[in-house]
Amino acid sequence: EPEVTQTPSHQVTQMGQEVILRCVPISNHLYFYWYRQILGQKVEFLVSFYNNEISEKSEIFDDQFSVERPDGSNFTLKIRSTKLEDSAMYFCASSVQGRETGELFFGEGSRLTVL
Amino acid sequence: SQQGEEDPQALSIQEGENATMNCSYKTSINNLQWYRQNSGRGLVHLILIRSNEREKHSGRLRVTLDTSKKSSSLLITASRAADTASYFCATGNTDKLIFGTGTRLQVFP
Question: Which of B44, B95, B102 sits opposite A101 (nearest CB)?
Fold first, then answer.
């Protein structure tokens, strides 16, 4: 069964360092998302991406964050200068539909620890 | 403001019992979805109910939607230990999905 894959599963970094989290969405999906979940808290929307551009972003997704689809398969989230509060689980998701907000398929997440 | 809030926050039951979780939301919706998350894992879609539907079934899951009260419920019948997880409702009107705070369900064998 097709699945969303994320790498790395766990990354430890020093505050102020740049981090890139990678995702391979399901191949025929058109809409891509990043969410984050701070330990024990709710799943928070960061950004959605369609047709090679950001379609929605939350207040969390400030200038320190960027997303890119560098080729036909990968979807990346970059955090330019990490802060302690960026420590969280980051989930990538993809969907065939977007505007009707259909089912999202999630990856297993990348745990980011900022020291 | 939060879009979805589930209650209870935590629920503990014995295997074989039914589990009911509720979700309230604030704005109008096109549909409402329920997801499950095992500890430390990604979210898995369970069921989607459209705004013009009142009830939907999928296996041991039953979802109801009351748009007049802006609420939904998820019923898991004949629960199993493997149902232990967090359950989230999610709503969205554009190309983003906003998740509620979740209900942690513990099913004891």
Answer: B95
Check: CB of residue A94 under 8 Å from CB of residue B27: no
Tens of each residue's pLDDT in chain B, 109 residues: 335 678 889 999 999 999 999 999 988 888 999 999 998 899 999 999 999 999 999 999 999 999 999 999 999 999 999 999 999 999 986 578 889 989 999 999 9
Residue with structure tokens 């036909």?
Answer: A72
**Closest by alpha carbon to A17, among A80, A89, A88, A87?**
A80
Interchain CB contact of B94 with A (< 8 Å) = yes
Q: How far apart are CA B53 and CA B51, in angstroms?
A: 5
CA separation for the pair B34, B63 (Å, rounded): 9
Nearest to B42 among A48, A91, A98 (CB): A91
Please indicate if any CB of chain B lies within 8 Å of the CB of A2.
no
Asked if B43 and A106 come within 8 Å (Cβ–Cβ), the reply is yes
